[in-house]
Design brief:
Keywords: Cell membrane, Membrane, Sugar transport, Transmembrane, Transmembrane helix, Transport
InterPro entries: MetI-like, MetI-like_sf
Distance between the termini: 46 Å
CATH superfamily of the largest domain: MetI-like
Radius of gyration: 24 Å
Shape: globular
Largest sheet: 2 strands, antiparallel
Family: Belongs to the binding-protein-dependent transport system permease family.
Number of domains: 2
Membrane topology: Multi-pass membrane protein
Helix content: over 70%
Structural class: mainly alpha
Protein name: Multiple sugar transport system permease protein
Number of strands: 2
């Protein structure tokens, strides 16, 4: 009986700690959304007020009137979606080749790809700017899309997954007359859907939240992405926190929709994440 009581007390303490940690992480998001509906004077009121007494959509309307925020949202959506789709295809092909094909230098190539994870972006930023400028891509979608496609993490994760796929499935398809490309598209890719969905969320969020490279690679207002657009509300005369909060609330909606749409695939990918060497 005493052990059962200790077990219940331990579980209660455990779940209480989880709830507290969850509230700590959720509170900034709740405060951002709440502040987006507050009048300016309520944002800086002390003691602070979580729920506005006079909520309004005025800040959301003003965000789209002050700057072409819809254009910023489109730029981010187009770049993030394009990078995600192209990266998933190319990374899946690379991961499959490294896992299934036998060719000289395969392990050396894989180690070389993994080693790029240790190189900070800041060390290649200037050479990348010079390369993009030489190609005439500055202030174009090419500059925002092409450098963001390669990522060693995606290739690594997909390679490890394909290593765990039973070869009997591929052998059966080859016996039935399927080509190597057919096996890849009809056997390997469908099996990798949970991993691809998790990587889709990862790639989309990484590019949607990108700030430094889009700030460097673009100069005109029409090519700004949403994160650079939000930064434009902070000027020398101070930050327009009411507009920043409203713009941030709008900007987070596509990521929430994507996450909840692919949530079940992400859970499946975690369950399947036992890696085979």
């Amino acid at each position: 009986m005493r052990n059962r009581a200790l077990h219940i007390a331990g579980n209660t303490l455990y779940y209480f700690a989880l709830i507290v940690i969850a509230l700590i992480f959720i509170f900034p998001f709740v405060w951002m959304v709440s502040s987006a509906f507050k009048p300016v004077d309520e944002i800086f009121r002390y003691p602070p007020v979580l729920i506005s007494q006079n909520p309004s959509l005025e800040h959301f309307i003003e965000v789209f009137q002050v700057v072409p925020f819809a254009r910023y949202m489109w730029n981010s959506f187009f770049v993030s979606t394009t990078v995600t789709l192209v990266a998933l295809l190319l990374h899946a092909m690379a991961g499959y080749a490294l896992a299934r094909l036998r060719f000289p230098g395969r392990k050396v190539i894989f180690i070389g790809i993994l080693s790029t994870l240790m190189i900070p972006f800041y060390t290649i930023m200037i050479p990348l700017v010079l390369l993009v400028k030489a190609l005439g891509w500055i202030d174009t979608y090419w500059a925002l899309i092409v450098p963001a496609i390669p990522h060693a993490f995606g290739i690594f994760w997909l390679r490890q997954f394909f290593l765990g796929v039973p070869r009997e499935l591929e052998d059966a398809a080859r016996i039935d007359g399927a080509s190597r490309i057919g096996v890849f598209f009809h056997i390997a890719l469908p099996l990798a859907r949970p991993i691809l969905a998790a990587l889709a969320v990862f790639f989309f969020l990484a590019n949607w939240d990108a700030f430094l490279w889009p700030l460097i690679a673009t100069s005109s207002q029409k090519m700004r992405v949403v994160q650079v657009g939000i930064q434009s509300f902070a000027g020398e005369q101070g930050s327009a926190w009411n507009l920043i909060m409203a713009a941030s609330t709008v900007a987070i909606l596509p990521t929430l929709i994507l996450f909840f749409s692919l949530q079940r695939f992400i859970v499946r990918s975690v369950k399947m994440s036992g890696l085979k060497g």
